[in-house]
Amino acid sequence: MSTTHGDEEREHAAYDFAYVQEKWLPVWDELTPFKSGRADDPRPKKYVLDMFPYPSGDLHMGHAEAYALGDVISRYWVQKGFNVMHPIGWDAFGLPAENAAIKRNEDPRIWTYENIATQKASMRRYACSFDWDRVFNTCDPEYYRWNQWLFLKLHERGLAYRKDSAVNWCPGCQTVLANEQVVAGLCERCDSAVTKKKLNQWYFKITDYADRLLDDMQQLEGQWPDKVLTMQRNWIGRSTGANVQFVIEGRSEPISIYTTRPDTLYGATFMVVAADSDLASELAAGTTAEKDFKAYVEKIKADSDIDRLATDRPKTGVFLQRYAINPVNGEKLQIWASDYVLADYGTGAIMAVPAHDQRDLDFARAMKLPVRVVVETGEDDPNETGIATVGDGVVINSGLLNGLNRVEAIAKINAQLENDGLGKSARNYRLRDWLVSRQRYWGTPIPIIHCEKCGEVGVPEDQLPLTLPDATGLDLKPKGTSPLGAATEWLNVICPKCGGNAARDTDTMDTFVDSSWYFLRYPSSTNNEEPFSRKDVDTWLPVDQYVGGVTHAILHLLYSRFFTKVLNDMGMLDFNEPFTRLLNQGMVVMDGSAMSKSRGNLVRLSDELANHGVDAIRLSLVFAGPPEDDVDWSDVSPSGSVKFLTRAWRLSGDITSAPGIDFTTGDVTLRKATHKALNDAAFAVESFRFNVAIARVMELVNATRKAIDSGCGPADPATREAVEAIAIMLSLVAPYTSEEMWERLGHKPAVALAGWPTVDPALLVDDSVIAIIQINGKIKERIEVSPSISDVDLEKQAMSHPVIVEALQGASVQKVITRAPKLVNIVINS
RNA sequence: GCGGGAGUGGUGAAAUGGCAGACACGCAGGUCUUAGGAACCUGUGUCUUCGGACGUGAGGGUUCAAGUCCCUUCUCCCGCACCA
Fold it and tell me: Is the Cβ–Cβ distance between A47 and A543 less than 8 Å?
């Protein structure tokens, strides 16, 4: 490529993207076309939000795709005349920074802020339409101060609490993990096998909101991908059933079990309690089974989650030498302890109905326990097949329930249990409370002081932010307890309540706390009085369009929805769902699999940008296919994008008419193509079919090329109209090229603010259309007709067409379906 | 196992129940060129007796009409993981 930039030379060569990029960046810095929230801005508002990045090095291909898509949407609404807020910030706390700090033996702040600077510069070059005045980082004390404030509010409301429990422990990261961060038994971050550890930890009581998190999803139907809604529903996992009391021999209190199938109560042939529950130890205590039980518990503790996940894992357990009495028939049932019952779901105890539950059947067969069929489903006897019959059927062997179907039987037995004080209907959730403590340095300190006399005392609001102690001198290496515990000066404090000696909580918050409300902060990003102002959220929220990866379908979105509902209850917001519309973009992969250094299929964004230019890369990503599908970089053609952009750019140099010329006198055929493209592209963008929108622009470029070379010519007003429309439409995806085109067309920057041209409906009507004539659904002929032709006239023309007359010889017409102006279908006897 | 999604040319993909393959990539041929990895033009689903016929994973159904709706089935991808 030439290094000199004479105008004439550029005119004839493929246009020089590097030169154009350097040319426009300072101009845009000056113009700030995407600044939002100017006091006198009369435009209606829209909030378009991209999920903020984690600053782990420079931007990669995945960022390039996500931000290109968010930009199309944001820039589109700007062109449509909206005051769009499109902010960005950094999700800057977390383990990678801490691990880098350990490796480099320096403060994690250095690595973090360096990477933020790098990414920021890359985003500017990538021409993201961000409002740079609203930037913040979650590791700024001005931000995390409000994490602490919110924590205290949750604490006040009883929604932040501590409890002892067996938590997921990652031996690699040396920290606890939320349920959500354990993927198939492995740590989401480092892939270590997760183990259990009994610890006292902070939780957020998200389970209090389980029903609302489920029910409010109705509002999101059709606005969020179904996939995400389904994943959230499954994750919350509401089940309805009944708690039933079983009297235990030699125990004063009965045991409550949870079942979704109270209709099968007569089929219960034994009881199982979770082996790792307190209940199990209590029942085993003092029995002849105690020794075996203890050995069993030791054995299963040694098993990792991985072992537990094996689907064909044989059932194991210990008979506790204790008996329960079935409340419906007085039968004596053996009580077993097993690890296939979970201690923290329901009551940690179940009635086993082996005939109609596969797990119970597997256990019964392993332990030679009886199996009794109480639902006649028409399937083979589970005693023989080893396959539990779980389908609907008629209840049998069940006293007064006999002859009923499932729904009737459940209603009847529930009513009776309730009446007898032996049970009642109940709900359970798969969702557990959100474990937020982390034993790491690089996060928000939990603003609680532990006083021997006063217990948990919140750090007074006027002392926030409680900043992290200096990292120098602290050993950040994971060792199972928080590094903050070693910062003695920071740690030891006076109790704000009683003035006695006390100590700070040494844990930091899960970084998902940071991202659970950041979208509320952008409109008030410089507010030092409160996390966000009521006026700002009322103006801008909820987010109109959220764009991000499906990797956050459960965690981040669920937590954000939870926070929004809590803040709504606190009266700080008047909406209860934060994200009105959600778009999940796919991943960028290479040769069919995710890019990674070790796989050797890493495509570096910086290389691609250097080779093809920003616009071509953005275009390639957006044009590759539907935004939610993965893009395989080996399938796309950045050089094809360069070719197209050059073609479009060249058009702008061909126009010989002056800017401001009256388009209405222009060539009608080309004008129609222009208006159709504008109309179709807008529709496509609004329905997230960006690849189709680009196809429409390509068609218009082709039509305009033809018009200039062999049609109405470069001086025709319609040609200028077409090229201006192309520049404006291209501004959504190729900001540099379109700005350059706009200038060559005689306009001042920024093309981003030019406005989407108004579509003339009269120009959307074709002079004539092709109607197809079918006989029995097979196309026989095409005729050219007026688009306003009536059904009657179209049918008349079709029936008298020579080809049709010929084809209808000797046949009897049964029916004629006419859909003017597109189709006539003649149904005949054949 | 449960839940969700997807299967269309050589490739990425289009298609309010109404002309399947728009728009591209790739490939082939051509024009212009000292040259072409530039630009422009033409062709490009399969079969064909050149009339047409067939064609959206497979099989059935609804309909005047199905890639699209319904049922069955196969394959692939994603999520969950003993939740009673």
Answer: yes
- Mean pLDDT of the region A766-773: 87
Positive or negative CA dihedral for A14, A18, A19, A23?
Answer: positive
- Count other C-beta atoms under 10 Å from residue A437's C-beta: 24
Main-chain phi, psi angles of A206, to 5 degrees: -70, -25
Residue reference for tokens 């003092």: A286
Confidence of residue A596 (pLDDT cuts 50, 70, 90): confident
Closest residue (CA) to C1' of nucleotide B19 is A772
Residues in chain A: 830
Report the distance from CA of residue A580 to the C1' of nucleotide B61 in Å, as an integer: 39
Residues in Cβ contact with A157 at an 8 Å cutoff, skipping those fewer than 6 apart? A566, A569, A570
Which bases along strand B come within 7 Å of a protein CB atom? 1, 3-5, 11-15, 18-20, 22-26, 38-41, 53-54, 64-66, 78-84
* Rounded mean pLDDT, A302-330: 81
- Quickly count: other Cβ atoms within 10 Å of residue A470's Cβ: 12
Task: Find which nucleotide's C1' atom is closest to A701's CA.
Answer: B23
Q: Which residues contact A197 (CB under 8 A, 6 or more apart)?
A: A166, A167, A169, A176
**What residues have CB less than 8 Å from A395, skipping those under 6 apart?**
A263, A374, A375, A376, A401, A402, A403, A404, A405, A406, A409
Q: Is A127 left (phi over 0), alpha (psi -120 to 50) or beta?
A: left
Q: What are the distances in angstroms from CA A720 to CA A482, A727, A753?
A: 66, 11, 18
Q: Give residue-wise pLDDT tens across range A562-574.
A: 999 999 999 999 9
**How are beta strands A582-585 and A545-549 bridged, if at all?**
parallel
Asked if pLDDT for residue A777 goes beyond 90, the answer is no
Q: What is the ipTM of this complex?
A: 0.94
Would the Cβ of A237 be found within 7 angstroms of any atom in strand B? Answer: yes
**Separation of CA A104 and C1' B56 in angstroms?**
56
Q: Is the pTM of this model over 0.90?
A: yes
In single-letter form, the type of residue at position A535 comes to K
Residue A779 CA distance to nucleotide B46 C1' (Å):
19
Task: Name the residue with higher pLDDT: A364 or A8.
Answer: A364
